[in-house]
Amino acid sequence: MTKSVIYKGFTIQPAPRHLTETGLWGLNLRISWTTKHNEQIVCPFFTADVYATEDEAATLSIAYGKLIIDGKIPGSSVG
């Protein structure tokens, strides 16, 4: 499975969820960062998108996290 990545000072940690009823994998991730006051913030994100494999869901979770960080997902933001 894909490991966490650092992107623009944020840590993106994929956490695909296995949907036992279908055998598919859901897009799920956490984005974390440390504030200037040294506080650790962790925000979970998920979508209804599903994928055939855990690796595919993990890889696309990272791409989705980058879009969130870049402000390209309406209604989802960090920092």
Strand and helix layout:
Elements: E1 5-7, E2 10-14, E3 17-19, E4 24-34, E5 40-51, H1 54-69
Plain-language structure description:
The chain contains 1 helix and 5 strands; from the N terminus they run E-E-E-E-E-H. With 79 residues, the protein is of the alpha+beta class. It has one domain (5-69): 2-Layer Sandwich (Double Stranded RNA Binding Domain), CATH 3.30.160.350. Strands 1, 2, 3, 4 and 5 form a 5-stranded antiparallel β-sheet that branches. The model has no long low-confidence stretch (mean pLDDT 95).
Coarse morphology? elongated
What integer value in Å does the Rg equal?
A: 13 Å
pLDDT averaged residue by residue:
95
Tally of DSSP β-strands: 5
Order of helices and strands: EEEEEH
Tell me the CATH topology. Answer: Double Stranded RNA Binding Domain
The computed structural class is alpha+beta
Helix content: 10-25%
The biggest beta sheet reads:
5 strands, antiparallel
CATH architecture: 2-Layer Sandwich
Number of separate domains: 1
Question: Runs with pLDDT <50, length 5+?
Answer: none
Helix count equals 1
Distance between the termini: 27 Å
- CATH C-level name: Alpha Beta
Strand fraction band? 35-45%
